[in-house]
Design goal:
This protein is 40% helix and 20% strand. It is of the alpha+beta class and 346 residues long. The protein has a 7-stranded mixed β-sheet, sandwiched between helices. A 3-stranded antiparallel β-sheet has the order 2-4-3. It is rod-shaped, with a radius of gyration of 41 Å. The structure holds phenylalanine. The site of phenylalanine has 11 residues, from strand 9 and strand 10.
């Protein structure tokens, strides 16, 4: 009997189970009513009284050993069962947070889309520029106030008193890209330049030191102010709706002559007057004009043969009108409670 107990003890000791079935056959073999331990307890009755104490103790230890083995294997299976719950293929997936396009990107893409339908192609240029591309070639007089440190972020300036075409600065408008296009391409030119621009302004609800522009340029023979007006009317109706009217007010830019500012009829009140258009019925949208002959000449384009128009608009301004957001700063804070609201947009 003792020999048998030792034999079984060793077997129990070395037993391992890979599956629930293995464990169940272990239970049937050792621990069930018809199992080996039951048999041994049955035989125990026939043990001589003088051996009962010793054999009885060994037998109880063996039973304990088998039970312990069974329980530890079983609980290790339970742990892996819980883990494998994560791979239940029939479960619905975890909610996946989808991002959304930034409203500035949505409006920029819309503007690009409208102009590309009438043959304008996108050109890009550096944000860190020199005075030559941002001011000099665009007919800014050397003492023009835009060149002042108050308005322009300089990276390096040759002299604190005078501006110099080699001064390095952050572009204040994307007209600099158009200078680069004029210098490197021959007319006809039809291009728009979207991009970030920088001006040294105090940040408020209506102004920011970084904002985005889309500027356009069209140069060919016989380009007239009427072409400019029709192009802008087409754009405005695509952007703000079929019934939109435009008006051009005389203005001044060094690089265009004549220059104008364009208003569109207020789409909120339909021109009747409301607090968005400050009861005028009109909203100011962009600056434009006929490219100044000095600019064409500075970029080696024959101003006797070619004429052109240019326009430039702030993307934030259009986005504010489109979404009725009154505080410009919201576009730069990246608060997802704000950005989330544009999820359904393109
Ligand atoms: N560059 C001007 C600005 O930044 C906009 C503009 C572009 C005006 C082209 C006229 C013609 O304000």
């Amino acid at each position: 009997m003792l020999e048998k107990i030792n034999e079984l003890s060793q077997e129990i000791n070395t037993f391992s189970a890979l599956s629930n079935e293995d464990l169940e056959s272990f239970r049937l073999k050792f621990l069930s009513k018809k199992g080996l331990l039951s048999d041994l307890f049955e035989d125990f009755k026939n043990i001589a009284p003088e051996h009962k104490k010793e054999v009885g103790q060994k037998l109880n230890l063996l039973k304990q050993q088998a039970l312990e083995k069974y329980n530890t294997i079983k609980s290790s299976f339970l742990v892996t069962d819980e883990k494998s719950e994560g791979t239940d293929l029939s479960r619905s997936s975890y909610p996946f947070q989808l991002g959304s396009r930034h409203p500035i990107s949505i409006v920029r893409n819309e503007i690009i889309d409208i102009f590309s339908r009438i043959g304008f192609i996108v050109s890009e240029g550096p944000e860190i520029e020199n005075d030559d591309h941002v001011f000099t070639k665009l007919n800014f007089a050397p003492e023009h106030p835009a060149r002042d440190m108050q308005d322009t972020f300089y990276i390096s300036r040759l002299s604190m008193e005078d501006s110099n075409p080699e001064d390095i600065l952050l572009r204040t408008h994307t007209s600099s890209v158009q200078v680069r296009v004029m210098q490197s391409q021959k007319p006809p030119i039809r291009t728009i330049s979207p991009g970030r621009v920088f001006r040294n302004e105090a940040i408020s609800a209506r102004a920011h030191c970084i904002f985005h522009q889309v500027e356009g340029l069209y140069i060919d023979e016989n380009v007239s102010f009427a072409d400019l007006k029709q192009t802008l009317l087409f754009f405005s109706r695509e952007m703000f709706g079929k019934d939109t009217e435009i008006r051009l007010r005389p203005s001044y830019f060094p690089f265009t002559e004549p220059s104008a500012e364009m208003d569109v009829s207020c789409k909120i009140c339909g021109g009747k007057g409301c607090n968005v258009c400050k009861y005028t019925g009109w909203l100011e949208v962009l600056g434009c004009g006929m490219v100044h002959p000095n600019v064409l000449e500075a970029c080696n384009i024959d101003s006797k043969k070619y004429t052109g128009f240019a326009f430039g608009m702030g993307i934030e301004r259009l986005a504010m009108l489109k979404y009725q957001v009154n505080d410009l700063r919201l576009y730069f804070e990246n608060d997802i409670r704000f950005l989330d609201q544009f999820k359904t947009a393109l």
